[in-house]
Design goal:
The protein has helices spanning 6-34, 52-89, 94-105, 110-117, 121-135. By secondary structure, it is an all-alpha fold. It has one domain. It is elongated and about 60 Å long. The two termini are 21 Å apart.
């Protein structure tokens, strides 16, 4: 969906890229949490063993760091969603607003947007492209 305005596409794509960052942070945190389970603890046989709490304190710290990163990313996403939503709302055409909001902010597929709005897929694509072109005038650099 890169036709139309490159500037608008890059602007609207920020939300999807941020979603990917959040997913990666969640995956790392989840993997770190699995290290807390007994089967996730591996002691090397040749080294002097420390207590579990000594080894686990580092894992706990890493988990807390990832949780803080997730919170920060979600706060950033909230601000970005608000900014993008406000920018889309500045458009004059309600159909363009609806299509852009559903696709970019609601993660609704084009086919499903067409079905919900009772329009053809080509009409939805046309509204998307025109909306992205019109959106260019409102995007801050």
């Amino acid at each position: 969906m890169k036709k139309g305005s490159e500037k608008a596409y890059n602007y609207l794509s920020k939300i999807r890229l941020l979603d990917h960052e959040i997913l990666r942070a969640e995956a790392v945190r989840s993997e770190l949490e699995s290290c807390l389970l007994p089967q996730g603890i591996n002691y090397e046989k040749d080294k002097v063993q420390k207590s579990r709490s000594d080894q686990m304190s580092k894992v706990y710290a890493d988990i807390e760091e990832k949780k803080a990163e997730e919170i920060s990313l979600r706060e950033k996403k909230h601000k970005l969603l608000k900014d993008i939503s406000d920018t889309i709302e500045r458009l004059e055409d309600d159909q363009e607003k609806t299509v852009l909001t559903m696709y970019w902010l609601g993660n609704v597929r084009i086919y499903d947007i067409a079905a919900k709005m009772n329009y053809s897929i080509s009409k939805i694509y046309a509204a998307m492209q025109k909306g992205m072109k019109d959106l260019e005038t409102y995007i801050k650099d």
